[in-house]
Amino acid sequence: MTNRTITMSYVLRDFNSKSTLEQSPQPIKFITGLGQIMPKLEEEVLALSDGDKKIITILAKDAAGEYDASAIKSIPKEEFAGIDLKEGMELFGEGENGQTVRVVVKAIGDDEVMVDFNHPFAGMDLEFDIEVIENRQANENEVKTGMPDGVVHSCGCGDHDDDHECCGGHHHDEDHECCGGNGCGCH
């Protein structure tokens, strides 16, 4: 079902370890059918009504995908000119197809930088502890713009800074992205 505006809060955990990966400090808003969150998560949330709470498990293959060791690449260090590189830092850029690409710096050599193109949650089964605050038909303006009312940036992105990517108006820890959608560079 498309064109529903969902407002929800969530806690995202690694299903196996139960460690918290991400949490919405304030409710997030998105419009269904636009790829703003993981398709399996959207499917589950669509079935919920205002005030409903549910724990939703999404297997790695339906979440961020399986971990792909071949996604670790060596890139000439000169391509990072002007960046104070540190192991573990996330970098965002534009890929060949124009999509936002996120990499994690794995190692820094004299001439090469090893970067990991895998999503931070690749290979993880995920558990979302969801509370739906509102599930309603998107209004005409929301359908036209693809943004819920009251959200400043496209795809539900709220404030963000140079080191973090955010969607739904919340900040992320330095190693995480938004509930797995693909709007605003969230994958």
TrEMBL record:
Q: What class of enzyme is it?
A: isomerase
Tell me the InterPro entries matching this sequence.
PPIase_dom_sf (IPR046357), PPIase_FKBP_dom (IPR001179), SlpA/SlyD-like_ins_sf (IPR048261)
One example of a Gene Ontology biological process annotation: protein refolding
Upper classification of the organism: Bacteria, Pseudomonadati, Campylobacterota, Epsilonproteobacteria, Campylobacterales
Q: Where is the PPIase FKBP-type domain?
A: 3-76
Q: Does the keyword Hydrolase apply?
A: no
Q: What is this enzyme's catalytic activity, as reactions?
A: [protein]-peptidylproline (omega=180) = [protein]-peptidylproline (omega=0)
The entry's keywords: Chaperone, Cytoplasm, Isomerase, Rotamase
Name of the featured protein: peptidylprolyl isomerase
Organism annotation? Campylobacter corcagiensis
Q: Name one GO molecular function term.
A: peptidyl-prolyl cis-trans isomerase activity
Compartments (UniProt record):
Cytoplasm
Q: What family is this? A: Belongs to the FKBP-type PPIase family.
**GO cellular component entries:** cytoplasm
Explain the purpose of this protein.
Also involved in hydrogenase metallocenter assembly, probably by participating in the nickel insertion step. This function in hydrogenase biosynthesis requires chaperone activity and the presence of the metal-binding domain, but not PPIase activity.
Q: Which PROSITE patterns match?
A: FKBP_PPIASE
State its Enzyme Commission number(s). 5.2.1.8
